[in-house]
Amino acid sequence: QVQLVESGGGLVQPGGSLRLSCAASGFTVDYYAIGWFRQAPGKEREGVSCISASDGSTYYGDSVKGRFTISRDNAKNTVYLQMNNLNPEDTGVYYCARGSSYYCAEYQYWGQGTQVTVSS
User: Fold this and answer.
1) Is 119 in contact with 11 (CB distance < 8 Å)?
2) What's 72's DSSP letter?
3) Is 103 exposed, middle or buried (0-12, 13-18, 19+ CB in 10 A)?
4) Closest residue by Cα to residue 50 from 77, 75, 79
5) Is the dihedral of CA 46, 118, 98, 35 positive or negative?
6) How many C-beta atoms lie closer than 10 Å to residue 102's C-beta?
7) pLDDT at position 54, please?
8) Are 49 and 33 in contact (CB under 8 A)?
9) For residue 119, which of 9, 14, 15, 10 has the smallest C-alpha distance?
């Protein structure tokens, strides 16, 4: 059974950092693309980042480039999202999702999400 469990969210001050984890089970993260998404209240879900399984290529949304870093630990079957220099616009529920293939395209399975709040 495919499962994705996010953790690491919380309340952080502007300029602070958080590292989100996406622990996978029922499959191995080096065979499928894993993406991070977020949704703020009243807004549509937004793609944040993705790491492909084909060659480990990484992709970032324009609003997080240079601040967020996605990585993968195959031994722990976990994907991370390191978030630095956070600002209030980064507030939202963050979800990880498993792609249907190696590539960052369609996503089949979703976690329950973890709340990130950036506020002073």
Assistant:
1) yes
2) E
3) middle
4) 79
5) positive
6) 15
7) 77
8) no
9) 14
Name the DSSP class of 14.
Answer: T
Six-digit token string for 23: 């622990």
- Write out the H or E segment, with its range, that includes residue 7: strand 3-7
Cα–Cα distance, 61 to 91 (Å, whole number): 15
Which 3 state secondary structure label does DSSP give 75? coil
Count of beta carbons in the 10 Å neighbourhood of residue 56? 11
Closest CA to 116 of 38, 9, 7: 9
User: pLDDT tens, 34-89?
Assistant: 999 999 989 999 999 999 997 889 999 999 999 999 999 999 999 999 999 999 99
The amino acid occupying position 9 is: G
**Burial group, residue 101, by CB count within 10 angstroms (0-12, 13-18, 19+):** middle
Give me 105's structure tokens: 């395209």
> Can you tell me whether residue 90 is helix, strand or coil?
helix
Question: Are 20 and 70 a contacting pair, CB within 8 Å?
Answer: no
